[in-house]
Write a structure and sequence with these properties.
The chain is of the alpha+beta class and about 300 residues long. The protein folds into three domains: about 80 residues, Rossmann fold, CATH 3.40.50; about 130 residues, D-amino Acid Aminotransferase, Chain A, domain 1 (2-Layer Sandwich), CATH 3.30.470; about 60 residues, 2-Layer Sandwich (Dna Ligase, domain 1), CATH 3.30.1490. It is built from eleven helices and twelve strands. The longest helix has 18 residues.
Length: about 300
Amino acid sequence: MKRVAVLYGGMSAEREVSLSSGGQVILALRAAGYAVVPVLVGDNLRAVIAALEPRPDAVFNALHGRFGEDGAIQGVLDWLGIPYTHSGVRASALAMDKAAAKAVFVAAGLPVAAGGMVDIAALEAGDPMALPYVIKPVNEGSSVGVEIMREGGNRRAVVAAGWRYGGAAMVEEYIPGRELTVAVMGDRALAVTEIASNAAFYDYEAKYADGGSRHVIPAAIDAGVYARALEVALAAHRALGCRGASRADFRYDDTKGEPGRLVLLEINTQPGLTPTSLLPEQAAHHGMSFPQLCAWMVENAACRM
């Protein structure tokens, strides 16, 4: 029986999400017939390494955020020679750095939002671009720290003064319309899901709270745009050098009618595996159960890539 260590928890702002993902994965892998070793990760790397002895056949990386999906733990596992799920060091680090990932997408000719990086001091002093625009941390996930600056608002200076995500932020034009997402498994884009929410945008609460959002799969959008979203998601996955599963997030501006403007926001190399997550829904749309999905990830685990 194959032994699989499941890393979950971690130290990032997404720890609670990882705890939920990890708990789901542990149950699913046991149901799929694996011998599972849960490893609750904290700030002691020596303890994590010790928990991987005797060496498992594979590690299921259910960590989210900093140190879990930014290439840090991937480098440790490469050093130890233990195959692990999801992307390797390079793709993980690129995808987690929104500015670096955006540069790759631009070079690949993929559609992105206008914007760039700005020092927090400059942001506090004045608007860096025309309103409305979005402010986001460059190295966080799950919409942590994301703010929308709108006409008539007065929160910019407050947001800048309370910023705790480093000395710079990414600012981008605000794209009205719909929230779309596409999961990729290996060399296949699965489906396009529309995420409908009553929140101002698809924030942390909308993503993970019961009833926070409603998922429509397949998304009821123009057929050509649907096909283009699948194409762009797979192209972005390949451009970053991702492996295993990833998820591409989009905005689709159809406010002036269809077909509208499709904009790639980012790639998530460690898609959530919680009860409200999108990758499992898209896998189920293709007839794959959650234990089968988790087993697929384990069987495609690798290292040094």
